[in-house]
Amino acid sequence: MSGIHRIILYRLLAAWVAVSVLTGVAVSWMGIRKMDSQLVALATADLERLSAASLPLLNQTELQRRALNDLATDFVRQHFIAVEFRDRNRNEVAAAVNPLHADIEQELRRQAYSFPLDDDRHYRNFSAGDQTVLRILVPLKEPAGGIAGYFEGTFLIDQETLDELRQDVITTLLVVVFAVTLTTICLYPVILSLNRDVIRYSNDLLKGNVELMEVLGSAIAKRDSATNVHNYRVASYAVKLAEKLGLEHSEIRDLVAGAFLHDVGKIGISDNILLKPAPLDEQEFEIMRSHVTLGVDILSKSEWLQKARDVVEYHHEKFDGSGYLKGLVGEAIPVTARIFAIVDVFDALTSRRPYKEPVPFAEAMGILQRGVGSHFDPRLTKAFAGIAESLYLEISNTPDDAVEWRLQELIKRYFFPDR
Ligand SMILES: [Fe+2]
Ligand SMILES: [Fe+2]
């Protein structure tokens, strides 16, 4: 499974867990509320037959009080553990307790709880031992709308009803989790396909930028006495040295772009100086040096080409500070530029130019060694010396178009790692 697939999968999994937990909590909360109201409806079903007219809760005669007590006893014969009728001042008028559940009633009395006295029905769940009971308060209304008194009862919820209601909540919860899971599974291929499109578009964009880098590098090679293949060779040498030094992939990409574009500023140097077959005088050399600033200026037009900037701007700096343009010293020169300086000089020495024959490998390495500490970074030159011979033999024995092809492979590896 590729990295991006794994990331999508992990994120979907995290979203699935988060949505399942959140909706699970919401559904459970709503389920419990619904369960409570169903229980209250069950407990109060019998109360509907009560009317204030039949309950003269104040100033009762003995007969009326007995009738009310009979009514209370009637309630406790069914599901109620205990009931009380109270007048509007909350004084008990009649009461009954189911003797079979007297222990529960006592336990509840210990958990003394008073409902607020207002126009609304109230309920609350209590646990007494392993039993669940529902305590309810129902205001009893007079025909005129006023409060005649209150009915307060403790309703025993039988286990079967409780299990049934709990099962309802669990079933709803499972349905919700199943729906979330199904949605997540359906989303996965959709996100994958959208992601593939995004990768394709960004790769097309990247391909355009890499082509632009190669075109610009080739444009300057057409003017300079160097050839395209100089760019391919220095880029190959630079990548191999960077790999040996363990540079980050992003630095290697910068190095490849820099290798292609290091002398792009030479486009702005006139032919009589750029192509002069003799050594340059001081004034001409001053103009030649300006290819560095011209190169930086050309790159500034493209955000993407800024990758090459360090190499373009500092490839003529020297380790002891005697280079140009800034005269940076030692590790103040970016590592990509220090690497590039070594391979650029090495390839210039070992390749054929219209005005010179190639210098033999051993002689070229001797020249590099003499420049260690002054021109070149000692650590990097030592690392290059370790790989130079086999690299040189490999590249110098490879036809130009094969050098280009091999560099394309390196470009693929560092610029399009997912392809
Ligand atoms: Fe240069
Ligand atoms: Fe060069």
Write the element-wise H/E pattern from the N-terminal end onward.
HHEEHEEEHHHHHHHHHHH
**What name does CATH use for the topology of the largest domain?**
Hypothetical protein af1432
Unreliable stretches? none
Global outline: rod-shaped
Bound molecules: fe (ii) ion
Termini gap: 14 Å
- Superfamily (CATH H level) name of the largest domain: Hypothetical protein af1432
The number of helical runs is 14
Supply the number of structural domains.
Answer: 3
Number of strands: 5
Rg (CA only): 45 Å
Strand fraction band?
A: 5-15%
Task: Outline the structure in words.
This protein is α+β, with helices and mostly antiparallel strands. The protein has three domains: 94 residues; 102 residues, 2-Layer Sandwich (Beta-Lactamase); 192 residues, Hypothetical protein af1432. Helix content is 60%, strand content 10%. The chain contains 14 helices and five strands. It has a five-stranded antiparallel beta sheet with strand order 2-1-5-4-3. The protein binds fe (ii) ion (2 copies). The site of one fe (ii) ion has 5 residues, from loops. One fe (ii) ion binds next to loops.
What keyword list fits this structure?
Beta-Lactamase, binds fe (ii) ion, alpha+beta, 3 domains, 10% strand, 419 residues, Hypothetical protein af1432, 5-stranded antiparallel sheet, 14 helices, 5 strands
